[in-house]
Every structure is written in C-alpha cells, then in structure tokens.
Design goal:
Rossmann fold; alpha/beta; 14 strands; 2 domains
Length: 391
C-alpha cells in the first residue's frame, strides 16, 4: 500500500531520524542501566550517564527495544523540544512550533507532569493548561493518525531558569511493572530494585536462588524470567505503541526474536518460601499461567527452620532477603536483634552463598558478622540499603 503524505512525513521526520532520549533511573541504578545497554550492544560512546538516568541518541525503534528489554530503569522519555520562554505568550508560540501531530495520535488523552524551578512561569497548573490547549488544537484540527488502542499520553515539561524542556513518556506504567504479578503483599519490593540486587550479587541464569522471605515473589519471578531469557517487558504494553511512528510489524518481529531465544527450564532452581499463608497464596496466583515459573519450588517454611535438604549440596548460589522491618514487625520485636538472628542463621547454614539483604538503615547491623557492601536504594518513600556480600 502506498504511503500517504502524512505517513511519509512521520517516516522522514520521526521514525527515520535519531532523537534525544532520557532513561529515568532510581537513584543508584544508573550504572546498572548502562551495563545493561552495553551488554545489549548499544555503543557506550553514544550514551551519557548523569544523575537520575542516562541520555542517549537513537531512533524510535531503539526506544522500543529499550522499553522491552531493560530491567533497571523506571521510564524512557523522548525529548522533543527545548526553548526559552519568560511569558505565557512566548510559551504558547514555542509549543505551537512543535508539530505534535507527528508524535501523538489525535484520539489520545493528555496528561501533564510539570516541574518549574527559578522560572518566571512557575505555576505548574497554568503551564499545563496553556500547553494542553495548544496541543489539543493541533491534534483535533488535522485528519492525521488515529490509534486503534488509544492510551493516555504524558507530556513532561521542565522549566529551569526560563529554559523549557518538553518530553513525551514512551513507557506508560513504570517499567518495574512487568505485567506478571496479579496481586501483591504489603510493602512489595519493586522489580527493578530486585533486579539491581540480583545484579550486584552476580546472579546469572545458571545460579541457584534461595528466596526464603518471598512475599509476593518479586525476587523469584525476576530470576525465573532471567533464567528463561524473557525480556522484562514481554508481558506488558507501552504508550509508544499508540504513536504514529510505531511499527507493529517491527515490534512483533523483535518480540518473536526473544521467543526464539527463550530457554525452557523445568528443573527446580529457584527455592521460594514464606511462613505467611496469605503471601504464599498471592505468590501462587502470580506464578499461575506462566510456564517460566516451573523452575520455582514454593513451600511454606519459616526462614529460621530452613535447611538445604532439597538442594544439591554442591550447589551454592544466591540468597535474597527482604526481611520485615518497621510496621511489618511485631511491636515487641527489636529490629536490630531480629537482623542479628538472621545473620547467625546465614552463617550457620549458608556459608559460601552470595547474599543480598534489604536493610532499613546503616545502623541496623552496627557490628555486622557478615561483611557487606552497602548500596543506597530508595523504595516506598524510604532511604534504604541493599547489603551485598558473601556469607
């Protein structure tokens, strides 16, 4: 079928060109993301690591591949405009100069995320309202692209000392949402943080994983996807799939390639357990319907009564722990004493295993028995630490 004039413009100006992108990462995960990109074959000299993420130049197809495959980031933004404006009149003029009909479908809903710092235009709601009026006027006036499955598109606007940066969110729901979990338990660990801890501990597809405080199964499910060779975004959708520049055929081919490289693992290599009935029921639901979970052995057990009878004795792997702390601990339980008991158990039964453990503070283990490298992580509004080491 012959391309329309509009489709040719989209190909020439959007899908056929390189653009500036920004990969948003949780604090401390930027270097992991760069390692992922290099491992995927993206040239190191085409990316720039900065606080909060990674800048890179690439095509929309590269953006799609990053969303599908990267495990550590939160979202990926497409930079579409940068300009100075010190009045609403100038702001509207500059926004009008960006052809949003090439970037967004005409039938999308718009959402705005505005931050302003030391700018004459500082009222975020007013900035969003003026920009929305201009963008909707463009999208509604032209007979351009109508998405089959329209989604809410988020426009990010950042004003810093009068300089505006306009970006589009290519991701949608944050990337830690893999599309696997049906339910969660209280205070679940995000999947990108679970991956970071597995990465820091040197976990590979050939390793045994022990997840003895599994909760809703974040560590186990992430490890099972890695063992199966499944990309992190395989079971979910993205907002870029509604863009005029999106190629369903190319993206389907990309996903098909991952299917062809998929590894079938049937033997039990991930041992998950929890003492809580509700947590086990939730994890069982999260595992159901996913054949890559056949490698997970799930049982009800208290960590302190755990033994390695079901694991071949020569197999020493990785143990991941997200112990309860704060409100999740019973009132009479002392956090430091509880963590000390965990340490003693680890030293007694898991000597030689690689360890990752969540610590609510540096002071949780003032005199650690296990030597740990502490990695600051931010989760659930709290500044926590991931303790990584060898028992």
């Amino acid at each position: 079928m012959e391309q329309t004039a509009y489709e040719k413009r989209v190909k020439r100006r959007i899908s056929g060109r390189e653009h500036d992108f920004f990969i948003v990462c949780s604090p401390g995960l930027e270097t992991i993301c760069r390692s992922e990109m290099v491992a995927a074959g993206f040239p190191d000299n085409r990316m720039n690591l900065i606080e909060g993420g990674i800048e890179f130049k690439g095509r929309v197809s590269d953006c799609a591949a990053m969303n599908l495959n990267l495990r550590s980031p939160s979202r990926i933004l497409l930079r579409i405009g940068r300009f100075k404006a010190d009045s609403f009149e100038k702001l509207e003029k500059k926004i009008r100069a960006i052809d949003f009909t090439l970037f967004l479908p005409k039938n999308c809903d718009l959402k705005f995320s505005v931050t302003a710092r030391k700018s004459r235009l500082y009222h975020s709601d007013a900035i969003a309202e003026r920009c929305e009026a201009v963008i909707l006027d463009q999208l509604r006036s032209d007979d351009t692209f109508t998405a089959q499955n329209p989604s809410t598109q988020t426009v990010f606007i950042r004003a810093d000392q009068g300089e505006f940066q306009i970006s589009l969110d290519s991701t949608g729901e944050l990337l830690f949402k893999r599309g696997v979990k049906k339910k969660i338990t209280p205070a679940p660990l995000r999947e990108n943080l679970a991956f970071a801890m597995l990465f820091w501990a040197g976990f590979t597809a050939g390793d045994i994983l022990l997840d003895p405080m599994c909760g809703s199964g974040t560590f186990s499910l992430e490890a099972a996807m890695i063992k199966a060779g499944l990309p992190s975004g395989f079971f979910r959708s993205f907002t870029f799939e509604s863009w005029p520049s999106f190629s369903p055929r190319a993206f389907a081919h990309l996903k098909k390639q991952t299917e062809e490289n998929r590894v079938s693992v049937s033997e039990k290599q991930i041992f998950a357990s929890d003492m809580d009935d509700h947590a086990l029921a939730v994890m069982q639901q999260n595992m159901s319907g996913h054949d890559f979970c056949r490698t997970i052995d799930l049982c009800q057990k208290d960590f302190f009564s755990l033994n390695l009878s079901t694991i071949p004795p020569e197999k020493k792997g990785v143990i991941m722990l997200n112990p309860p702390y704060g409100k999740r601990l019973e009132e009479k339980t002392n956090t430091k004493a509880f963590y000390r008991e965990i340490e003693k158990k680890l030293l007694l039964d898991f000597k030689g295993w690689r360890l990752g453990i969540i610590l609510p503070s540096k002071e949780t283990l003032p005199n650690p028995l296990v030597r740990l490298q502490l990695k600051p992580i931010f989760h659930g509004g709290l500044n926590l630490f991931a303790g990584i080491g060898i028992i």
